Amino acid sequence: MSTPTTRPAGRSVVVTGAASGIGRATALKFAADGDRVLAADLDREGVDATVRAIEESGGTALAVAGDLGEQQVVDAVVERAVTAFGGLDVLVNNAGIMDRMSALGETDDAEWERVLRINLTAPFLLTRAALPHLLAAGGGAIVFTASEAGLRGGAAGAAYTAAKHGVTGLVKSLAVTYRDQGIRANAVAPGPTATGIRVDAAPDAHGPAVIGRLIGAVTGRISTPEEQAAALTFLASDAASFINGAVLPVDGGWSAV
Ligand code: NAD
């Protein structure tokens, strides 16, 4: 692996899903550390509020609102960051949905496509668009918000579990392919976290029932978005310069059981 070239502060950072939850906390943390943040999200009001909060604390941020499953939105995000901040150093692929958390036999085509498009295809599209700029900068860091559901089969529904396992596959493929060009790729695998994420499943469906039991029995409490943001920003920092291809559980020990 070559020596990391990301600057310790003042980097150009894209954070997706930055209107809410883990993405918002992560955008605020990068900005508090002196980085310039492009906050991307479907939710225009929410992402504007994140940018206002950063600016009110003296930081630099911009918002791009749109569906990250669409190529033109992805291109606009990368183009805005590169134009406004003079390049791109860090990409945080965080936006995601849980949807209905159905078992495979009850997963219809629409749920499968929604969940895969937002949780797996969008990070693929954005990473592909960002790579030439990270390479042009001599390297950088790509961080993903995976999930406990990217580590094993009992944490969520079938489409979400498949998508998050796909995310861990992207991380490992990127880590191996681009390490000699100074790019590191890693993921955080959050346990249950207090955010705006919605589960549209019936109470007796697989995901929420399983998660509810495990939260009570194993994790004791759920995580704050700031605890996830701390891990994401660490993995993107030079303090993590020899960490590449890792999927870090941030789950209070849930995955250790
Ligand atoms: P959240 O709902 O608070 O935030 C997710 C953000 O993503 C929202 O602001 C939403 O508008 C945005 N988003 C959704 N679809 C989008 C799209 N097509 N284009 C652009 N933006 C879109 O939820 P969160 O919990 O902060 O989720 C962040 C990540 O954490 C997700 O990838 C999720 O799968 C993962 N995760 C969450 C938990 C948890 O318990 N909250 C656990 C494990 C993993």
TrEMBL record:
<dbReference type="InterPro" id="IPR020904">
    <property type="entry name" value="Sc_DH/Rdtase_CS"/>
</dbReference>
<keyword id="KW-0560">Oxidoreductase</keyword>
<protein>
    <submittedName>
        <fullName>SDR family oxidoreductase</fullName>
    </submittedName>
</protein>
<dbReference type="InterPro" id="IPR036291">
    <property type="entry name" value="NAD(P)-bd_dom_sf"/>
</dbReference>
<dbReference type="Pfam" id="PF13561">
    <property type="entry name" value="adh_short_C2"/>
</dbReference>
<dbReference type="InterPro" id="IPR002347">
    <property type="entry name" value="SDR_fam"/>
</dbReference>
<comment type="similarity">
    <text>Belongs to the short-chain dehydrogenases/reductases (SDR) family.</text>
</comment>
